[in-house]
## 1
Amino acid sequence: MNRRHFNKLIAGASVLSGFSFTGFNNTASNYSLSKKIIKPQRLQPGATIGLVTPAGPITEEQLEKTISNIEGLGFKTVFNEKRLLSKIGYLAGRDIVRADEVNTMFNNKQIDGIWAVRGGYGATRILDMLNYKVIRQNPKVFIGYSDITAIHHAIFKKTGLISFHGPVGASDFTDYTKKHVMQVITETTPTLKIDPCRDNEILENNTYHSYIINEGTAEGQLIGGNLTLVASLIGTPYDVSYKNKLVFLEDVGETPYRIDRMITQMISAGKFDNIKGIILGVFLNCETKERNNSLTLKEMLEDRLQRLNIPIIYGMSFGHISNQFTLPLGIKARLNTEDKSITLLESAVVD
């Protein structure tokens, strides 16, 4: 760490001192909450962002990149270096410590928003340790994707708080990514049209190329995230209703038959019954080299999903890719397959 960041870490540690293991209790996950949607306050220039690692471990380089990314957006960063850089195998430290860091950031009045540094694995292990009463009483912008999907769903189910499927702190903050995340978390525009990323269409790798599975227009509340995590939550207290929802899904590094299995599980569990439409991101590295013994990704998706007879599109610019737009879970939106756009029909944040 260079000296500038070292001084920032000391300042961050002092801000967070006195909040250790705030509000954690064994009954937090059973807290009974209303179904009312809660929108966090928009982030303004100079807002203080608390960094968390609720899942997999990070390197110092990833932390440095996160600081540069978020401060480059005009925000300040606060974090506990010891906790962020903790590592126990494939986890960023002990479950109770990772959960407490999230609870602490929500409880700390000096923190305006919370940003996950990376995904990885481990978020599902802490869902019953999060203090949903504290989260509901202290609504804040919370951002991340991949394994962070589990926390998004749990927070939405238990509190009704809108959270944001967007880049993790260590993502590549391209101009496209920065533009779209800032529009969603800092502006209260009543409608926002998200156009496809044209750069994806000219890439040689056709995994990035969009295509329509079923034509049409659909409107509904946005729900979804990483397919692996969404499927893993079925049958748990953190599984959300998909009825009348506009479902968005993405994944990475899974072969077509594995994606088939997860989609089939969702179909069998009735998760796609009475939904409005499906928005698929870029499923990076999800093809197989064994072409003679496998369907292609496109063939599999069409085979499993076309029969649903609802608007479905593949290749929208979110997922484990550089150019990402940000989707607020719980906000009403419209999918239009004709121009391959998504329009947010309400603001995700309030003044």
## 2
Amino acid sequence: MKYQSNQKPTAVFFSNPFGYGPTGTAIALMETLFEKWPGQIIYAASRFCLEPFQKINDHKLKVFELDERNFKTVTDFLRSIPNPYVVSSLNRFSLKAAHFLNIPSAFIDILTWFWQKIPDDYLLADYYFCPNLPGTEEKIKDLPQLSKIILVPAVLGTLPSIKCKRKKKFILVHIGGCLNPLYQGLPIAYLRLLTEVLNKQKLNQKIFITGGHMALQFIEKRLKKKNVFCCSFSRKEFLEKLGQTNLFITTAGQAATLEAFALNTPTSFLPPTNLSQWALANLLTKYKAAPNRVMLEEFITPRVNLQNLSEKEGLILFSKYYQKIADDKNLRNKYTEMVFYLLDKIPENKEQQLFINKIGVNGAEVIVNELQKRWSF
């Protein structure tokens, strides 16, 4: 579909409810596109994707709640939009719908480095953007569609000033969304283990736990310590807290991890809740950027080759592993001591700074500038 000069274009954003990473990426792009886009901006998303979302501007931005993983729902919705341009953050259903309806499309894949093979659906996009993490160039070099693939720096939200004084009175713990369309329900054993540790710690400073609303409700009902607080933050609020704390403890979700690195916040890592977190933690370890980390491999006997599992298989297996840890007193005590160490020790983060400096942080700006040239707005 070509741009019509007598009809302003509508940018329609979709993300994937796979943790908070894809949604954080979509929000970062909307924030950056806002000043340049000549028409309406729409965010079409389910309730889970809307959890960290904060309206940018009531007049120019509209939000529609829908099932973004239902091809028919997305297709019918796009048919109702005048002069649409689709921007998809790891949402293959919106990309397939755009291709089916001959709508211009851009796809942002923050996990190019992770895939064994880039899914064919992703390359239906007119333009395929991928952050240049280590291993990305190797994954794309032999693709016949190389001309449509654009390497970019990390796609991060609008970061607060890192010159602000850090408040050394709290620890920020991030558990991600903890919901996944490939797995029914919460990772109960994982959350029980973490809650048990929080109830046993004897720290004086405040500990803020942030993540998906349902996961936070689960933890909050079981908390006994008065220095631990469960908080649902918007993206803006989260980044402000991330810039203030002197210790960030997180699952290795890509968006939160790279934002922490960009803000020069010392970062430690909880064990993963999915395969991409496991893979990113291993990648960071290779670059000495995860010195304080609880490794799932410490609890797996015999060792399993996680590399060859599908994401759904990984989620099921991880659930079994954490239940095994919860059921075994010795393993549970070992887990507790390892998380205690994360809470008590601030890691050296020089290598984390080197890692993010190599990738860059202005991916949202680069993508918007590229789209401005290619879509002529």
